Automatic annotation (TrEMBL):
InterPro entries: Cu_amine_oxidase-like_N (IPR012854), Mao_N_sf (IPR036582)
Protein name: Copper amine oxidase N-terminal domain-containing protein
Domain of life: Bacteria
Domain Copper amine oxidase-like N-terminal intervals: 54-149
Keywords tagged on the record: Signal
Keyword Signal: yes
SUPFAM superfamilies: Copper amine oxidase, domain N
Organism annotation: Paenibacillus artemisiicola
Length: 274
């Protein structure tokens, strides 16, 4: 049985500013690209990656996961560039040089040509790249959960992006248990007051009941240089109101409000407080 916990909160925002690289075909973040519904396909360390401007990670018609080019730079510590004239993207990451062309199944890694089973595409004005070639040619630790349909990047050395740093810098609950709550999907509902409601649904996959007050689902929204900073519920406490007991195999949904301005990244943890 799915239970809805409504936590429509006034968000505590922490602001800091950083300079962004212009590397996508679209040079600004539009909130119109925020999905109304999305499955969650990507997890990096303890963080579920919900949205990566200008589009959420998605699975294409060939059942392959693609993510926006800028994600490799702004989240995972790579260096990227894009040439609109020939629709070519280059990524320097994990000690390798990658080159992709929109619409081509051929790609280069360190000057050698590889064939892929899908193609880079332009979506929402920006190039998105198949992540499989990166995983096949680097030493990153990862696993694909075919049942839950989520790619988990287990190598936390890549967690260098500002959203991760903002989360860590304000997390008062570093001691917790991960891989118990699985974030399955989310919905976004925009309102006329300049905010949006984020509804996150997670499933208890632990095999045990989670006692009331122990489950913690904490999203963070990172903004671009126009709006600046990030927004998250206060880390001085777990979810408020506290999440009630989550039976084994059951789903729980939480809701929070955020400013609808220049949204660049949305990440979340889903864990048990120890």
């Amino acid at each position: 049985m799915k239970r809805l916990i409504s936590a429509l909160l006034c968000m505590v925002s922490f602001f800091c500013f950083s300079q962004l690289n212009n590397v996508s075909a679209a040079t600004s973040t539009s909130t119109s690209s925020l999905p109304t519904y999305s499955h969650v396909y990507l997890k990096a360390g303890p963080y579920y990656i919900l949205y990566t401007h200008p589009t959420a990670p998605f699975v294409d018609q060939n059942d392959r996961l693609l993510i926006p080019l800028r994600t490799f730079d702004e989240l995972f510590g790579g260096s990227v560039s894009y040439q609109a004239s020939n629709k070519t993207a280059e990524v320097i990451w994990q000690g390798h040089a990658f080159k992709f062309v929109v619409g081509s199944e051929k790609a280069e890694v360190d000057g050698k040509t590889f064939s892929m089973d899908t193609k880079p595409v332009i979506k929402d004005g920006s190039i998105s790249l198949p992540i499989r070639l990166f995983l096949n040619t680097t030493n990153l630790k990862y696993h694909w959960d075919s049942v839950l349909r989520v790619l988990v990047l287990d190598d936390e050395s890549i967690l260098v992006g500002k959203p991760f740093m903002d989360f860590k810098g304000n997390d008062l609950y570093p001691k917790n248990i991960d891989n118990v709550l699985q974030v399955e999907n989310y919905t976004i509902k925009k309102s006329q007051d300049g905010n949006f409601q984020l509804n996150l649904t997670a499933k208890n996959k632990s095999g045990n009941d989670i006692p009331a007050g122990k489950a913690d689902i904490h999203p963070l929204v990172s903004y671009g240089k126009v709006f600046g900073g990030f927004a998250t519920d206060s880390y001085s406490r777990p979810n408020y109101p506290a999440i009630s007991e989550v039976k084994s195999g059951e789903e729980v949904t939480i809701s929070q409000n955020f400013p609808l301005q220049d949204v660049e990244y949305i990440i979340t943890v889903a864990r048990i407080l120890s």
